[in-house]
Design brief:
two-stranded antiparallel sheet
Length: 302
């Protein structure tokens, strides 16, 4: 006898919870980076993370008999998306933090992504963005600026660190568009496998060329690595792909506006970072901005 299908009410609740869960999980990536980077170089840290993810994904794909890509072209698309989303975005952020850029400022720079995605989605994906959505995106950006404004004048690192943040911004923008355009039907098990394989090879080669590969295996580092592997690489990125598959690219990208304030809320009890009235006002702007983009009528799809 076949199992009954999931009740519509439960499915609706799951779909409603997904964006908020994604924002929370994605925000913890900055916390994990801050915890782990003192004990390993950025690209070495990422290479370990990627190979551990592969070690978990491969048996899952085999045991569940997941469908494999049908052509070399599909594998190529998965590899390109993986390089953009994992090596380009994560590598840029990790290198920036390693060079002294504060996590808040790096979050602010990459949060400009929704504006870029909204502009590019119209050109490349045929998605139309309404005036209300543009207002929401502008409010979100202004809110993020308020949340992290206290960090703009201190600890920004050097020019190379800021450049790494800009590379990460370009990579996550391009990766979101590319994933939507060429990987919409990707199976999350085998597709992720090829994405992380490409990322692990490229990040590993870069680490061999530019870093000393020295790792201090402290308890804090092991915890950070385990969290980033299980929660971020397997959980948050899978949610990102599901959200991209189900919604307009600019709506999904608008969720990234919530990441800096959410990161600040998580860092408050962990690292003693406090939020003043200006930062709280910024969070309110972010919520309003994201609501304008994501509520019905905020963005029109082809």
């Amino acid at each position: 006898m076949s199992m009954p299908s999931r009740p519509p009410a439960i499915r609706s609740v799951a779909l409603a919870v997904m964006p908020g869960l994604f924002v929370f999980l994605w925000s913890t990536g900055f916390i994990g980076a801050k915890l782990g980077l003192p004990y390993a170089p950025p690209l070495t840290f990422l290479t370990l993370r990627f190979f551990l993810v592969l070690a978990l994904l491969l048996p899952v794909a085999l045991l569940t008999r997941a469908p494999w890509p049908r052509s070399a072209a599909e594998i190529g698309h998965y590899a390109v998306a993986g390089l953009l989303l994992h090596v380009g975005y994560l590598g840029g952020v990790y290198i920036a933090i390693g060079l002294g850029v504060e996590a808040g400022l790096s979050a602010l720079i990459v949060s400009i992504q929704p504006l870029l995605v909204a502009a590019l989605a119209g050109l490349l994906l045929g998605e139309r963005v309404s005036r209300r959505a543009w207002i929401g995106l502008a409010l979100g950006l202004a809110g993020v600026g308020l949340v992290v404004q206290g960090k703009l004048g201190a600890g920004i690192g050097d020019v190379a660190g800021i450049a790494a943040c800009l590379v990460a911004l370009a990579a996550i923008t391009g990766g979101t568009i590319y994933q939507k355009r060429f990987c919409a039907g990707m199976d999350l098990r085998t597709g992720n496998l090829f994405q992380f394989l490409a990322a692990a090879v490229v990040a590993g080669l870069a680490a061999l060329l530019f870093e000393d590969l020295e790792v201090q295996w402290t308890g804090e580092f092991v915890f950070a690595l385990g969290w980033l592997v299980l929660v971020l690489s397997l959980g948050a990125f899978s949610l990102l792909y599901l959200l991209i598959r189900r919604g307009a690219a600019n709506r999904v990208a608008s969720l990234f506006f919530l990441v800096p304030p959410c990161t600040a809320l998580i860092a408050w009890p962990l690292f003693g970072e406090t939020l003043g009235p200006v930062e709280l006002a910024g969070m309110a702007l972010v919520v309003v901005g994201v609501a304008l983009v994501n509520l019905p009528g905020g963005a029109l799809r082809r």
